[in-house]
């Protein structure tokens, strides 16, 4: 295929991905009651799944402190177009999240024909792995980070005279940033796997920079979460765990490559 033909092929993959995102966004836009009252505003309600599980944990350990009965804040719209804009924004974000597996599959369909046979074999299952990690990141952001961050920020007061009344733009922006940011950051093992395959990253390098990674993780947590220590710690802990897991992945890739090189060297010496 010529360069123009490749661009034409890429264009159609992008168009199909955008159509999927657009269709799901329209469905989410029409389902406004479910999207806002159940999904978007869910982490701000005391009967949310996370808070109910915390309450059950509190009952097991005889601690009533884990039961959250009220989240004292109000959501307002201080701009005339605030609610409509957030309606469109939230629908589009849901479209991206739900259509992400299909969009990545379309992207992979464009890339995979250009791979060599050995490259295609080592990257088998890439769509599945990326989808699973993205889903885990989204669930972690929605069920752990979002409700705990909302509860912390809603109860934080510098004075009893100051009441928390958040703008809908701020609330929706915070929740979507936490959820999408978690989904993206959970792709770290996949990135490390491919960087290890091409020799850019080695397990010894990752171990040597383990302490530096903590600083980088904290900076990423500060960039992708609200400016409070709880959110930064919540995103930093699983990211550090993923970093440790990525070291194991890099070690596995490195051992396989070394074994393959030794076998090739052995065949060369015998010949």
From TrEMBL:
InterPro entries assigned: TatC
Annotated signal peptide: none
GO-annotated cellular components: TAT protein transport complex
The keyword Magnesium is assigned to this record: no
GO molecular function terms noted in the UniProt entry: proton motive force dependent protein transmembrane transporter activity
GO biological process: intracellular protein transmembrane transport; protein transport by the Tat complex
Transmembrane segments: 12-36, 84-105, 126-148, 168-196, 208-227, 233-254
Membrane topology designation: Multi-pass membrane protein
Keyword Transmembrane helix applies: yes
Subcellular location: Cell membrane; Membrane
Keywords: Cell membrane, Membrane, Protein transport, Translocation, Transmembrane, Transmembrane helix, Transport
Function field: Part of the twin-arginine translocation (Tat) system that transports large folded proteins containing a characteristic twin-arginine motif in their signal peptide across membranes.
Subunit structure: Forms a complex with TatA.
Family the UniProt entry places it in: Belongs to the TatC family.
Name by which UniProt lists this protein: Sec-independent protein translocase protein TatC
Record lineage: Bacteria, Pseudomonadati, Bacteroidota, Cytophagia, Cytophagales
């Amino acid at each position: 295929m010529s360069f123009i033909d490749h661009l034409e092929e890429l264009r159609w993959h992008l168009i199909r991905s955008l159509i999927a995102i657009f269709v799901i966004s329209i469905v989410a836009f029409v389902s406004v009651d479910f999207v806002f009252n159940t999904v978007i505003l869910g982490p701000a309600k005391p009967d949310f799944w996370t808070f109910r599980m915390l309450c059950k944990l509190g009952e097991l350990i005889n601690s009533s402190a884990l039961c959250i009965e009220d989240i004292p804040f109000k959501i307002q719209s201080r701009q005339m177009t605030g609610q409509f804009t957030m309606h469109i924004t939230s629908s589009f974000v849901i479209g991206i999240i739900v259509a992400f597996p299909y969009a990545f599959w379309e992207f992979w369909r464009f890339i995979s024909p250009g791979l060599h046979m050995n490259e295609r074999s080592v990257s088998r299952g890439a769509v599945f792995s990326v989808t699973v990690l993205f889903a885990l990141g989204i669930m972690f952001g929605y069920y752990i980070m979002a409700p705990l961050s909302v509860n912390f920020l809603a109860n934080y007061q510098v004075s009893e005279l100051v009441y928390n009344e958040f703008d809908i733009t701020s609330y929706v922006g915070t929740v979507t940033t936490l959820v999408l940011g978690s989904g993206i950051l959970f792709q770290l093992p996949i990135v490390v796997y491919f960087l290890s395959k091409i020799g850019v990253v080695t397990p010894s390098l990752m171990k040597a920079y383990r302490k530096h990674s903590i600083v980088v993780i904290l900076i990423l947590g500060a960039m992708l979460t609200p400016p409070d220590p709880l959110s930064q710690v919540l995103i930093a802990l699983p990211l550090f765990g993923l970093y440790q897991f990525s070291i194991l992945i890099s070690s596995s890739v490195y051992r396989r490559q070394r074994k393959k090189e030794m076998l090739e060297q052995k065949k060369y010496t015998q010949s």
